[in-house]
Structure formats: C-alpha cells, structure tokens
Design a protein that fits this description.
The protein contains 2 helices and 5 strands; from the N terminus they run ββααβββ. The chain has 119 residues and is an alpha+beta fold. It folds into 2 domains: 1-35 and 91-119; 44-88, no CATH class. A hairpin with a 5-residue loop joins strand 3 and strand 4. It has helices at 49-56, 63-77, and strands spanning 15-17, 24-34, 93-103, 109-113, 116-117.
Length: 119
C-alpha cells in the first residue's frame, strides 16, 4: 500500500505544510482582486516615522485604540502580509496569476505568484 504524503507546498492541494507554522494543515485558497489606490497622494498609504509617532500620541483616540493602530502600522511597515477588513470594495479587476492561501491552523497567509510560493 502506498501512502501519499502531504505535500510541502502545493498550489494543487488544499492541505500542505504551512510555510508559517510548519504544520500539515488545511488551507483556504483566496483569489486576489484589485482596486486603484484611493487617497490624495495616489500612492499606497503607509503611516511610519513621525506620522506614526503622532498617531501614538493622538488624543482623539483612547489609549487602547492608539495602541491597536500603532501595532497595525508596525505590522504593515515590517513587511507582514495579512488579511484585514478595511472597507467593502467592488471591482472587476481580477489579479490573474496571483493567489493567497490561509492556514487553518495558524491563520498565516501565503502569497503565490505564477503558481509558486513567494518566500
């Protein structure tokens, strides 16, 4: 009897070794859609440096909310890729050749380009 091992990483499976937690786990596959950046500068939003310091001291937000916002932007600025509920979007721009997988064990997100895992 031949046992089929769980693949290390595979675009053709919904169960493989997670690149984040290294566990053999079920994965949820997500399509990627695009919407033009919508801010006055016309570039992706990043709050860092002095802007992040101002956010950390902004009395408009309660201390716990400020901490959450600063932690969020520190995560973004560190290069982490993660899912976040921001605002509903409607778009017909599908990003072909790019997929995301989310580990059901650790919720780690993996980016796939051209069928290959981006590491």
């Amino acid at each position: 009897m031949k046992i089929n091992p769980v693949p290390l990483f595979s675009l053709k499976s919904n169960r493989f070794t997670c690149p984040h937690c290294q566990q053999e786990s079920d994965q949820v596959w997500l399509n990627v859609y695009a919407e033009p950046v919508n801010n006055p500068a016309g570039v992706p939003l990043r709050i860092e440096g002095e802007g992040l310091q101002q956010l950390a001291q902004n009395p408009q937000f309660p201390p716990d909310v400020r901490e959450q916002k600063v932690a969020y932007w520190n995560k973004v600025n560190s290069g982490d890729v993660f899912l976040d509920r921001w605002a509903p979007v409607q778009t017909d721009l599908f990003v072909a050749g790019m997929e995301l997988s989310v580990c059901r064990s650790c919720t780690g997100l993996a980016v796939w380009l051209g069928g290959k895992l981006v590491t």
